[in-house]
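Before we proceed, please read the two lines closing this message. Let me know whether the structure tokens fit the sequence:

…
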Amino acid sequence: MNEQSKAAVRRHSDGAFLNRYFVGRGIDIGGGPDPLGQYVGVFPLMQEVMTWDREQGDAQYLEALPDNCVDFIHSSHCLEHMVDVRVALDNWIRVVKPGGFLIITVPDEDYYELGDWPSQRNSDHKWSFTIYKPQSTMPKSINVLDLLREVGDRVGVERVCLQNNFFRKVLAQANFDQTLTPVAECAIEFVLQKRPTFSDELPALKASAPEIQILNQ
């Protein structure tokens, strides 16, 4: 319930979100029910956020968006709905400008799914996520660290964090979905920065190259 807004309260006290991640113009993938754009002005350097939901097209491909067109991508609890997580992440990286950020949260399979599959809390979940396990009892489990290793040539990893704020074991034992409360988070949050390519760096390298004069002896 309003997972993005829960995260916004936490993020507003984090200088990296205020001054580094939510800067410029971005896209909020899957943000229809609880859009990040409602907090333009709360995050002072965030200029504009376009919500991308079903009406805009398939979030796995973002076909209407050109490469390198936004300063940041935000997605709260959407990646687990994609048919192919890796294709989706490839395209999300594609549309971010070099140096820009991807801020993504997904439900943690132990804190949200509570080990149940298919998901008992959202029947459209196609994947479950864990930061890392040698083995998972979940048949569609993705290790986030393995996933990020696959895209490491294109992005740097700024942070990977389990957000289990206000999670209570006694409620989990009662099989209660704690994300229905206004405070509990049961998510994995990861932040990536898109690496510049050599062609992106070339103009700056040329500009900074020292002038070399060859004198006839």
